[in-house]
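re: ur question from yesterday

yeah so i grabbed the chain u mentioned. its 223 aa long if i counted rite. heres the sequnce exactly as i have it in my notes:
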Amino acid sequence: MTENEAREAICEVGHNLWQLGFVAANDGNISVKLDEDVFLATPTGTSKRILRPEMLIMVNGKNEVIKEAKGYKPSSEFKLHLRCYKERPEINAVVHAHPPTATGFAIAHVPLDDYSMPEAIIFLGSVPIAPYDTPGSVGLADSIIPFLKEHDTILMENHGAVCVGVDLTQAYYRMETLEHYAKVSLVARQLGGAHPLPKDKIDECVEIGKSFPIRHPGYKKYS
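ran it thru and got these structure tokens back, copy pasting raw so excuse formatting
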């Protein structure tokens, strides 16, 4: 992906997040790795509704601006993105948002880790909750480290969610799947509780997930 293509793609994802209600006001942030130590990231204090390619900022692995966007500054939460890239070299995109239902689970401290929906098993695995720290802090960035080794979708306690991918499309689709799964799971719980799939069927879904050209997400033990 060229720099211009990445700029356009980030803006498209930002607009989608806003239209779906996954972000409000200036919530959320998106980044793409262009090269080994070069990243494009959304600016702070800017609604994803009005995001344009020229508003994106180029940053290096030391969180230093290497190509400015006039009138815009990097998000303090880019530290979270850098931690993802450092811990997992195969990651090329990070999407952070506050999808309402999934964030409700994060605020209630309820992980989305049952195995009741095939698509969630295949594309998400279990979704853990990283412990809370102040948004934009180093502590927040560090809080996800133990989960990144095995998970590509992580809820952040009392905050929101972060999804990573080998490209921006994959990271964004994981965010969509997360919120859809959270909605379905909430309704199931209201109707008396989700019924997990039988172990052999869970195993089949896990194997299907392995067949995709993606890093296989982590799974909580279910046997």
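noticed a couple things. Residues 168-190 form the longest helix (23 residues). also The chain has a mean pLDDT of 93.
anyway ttyl
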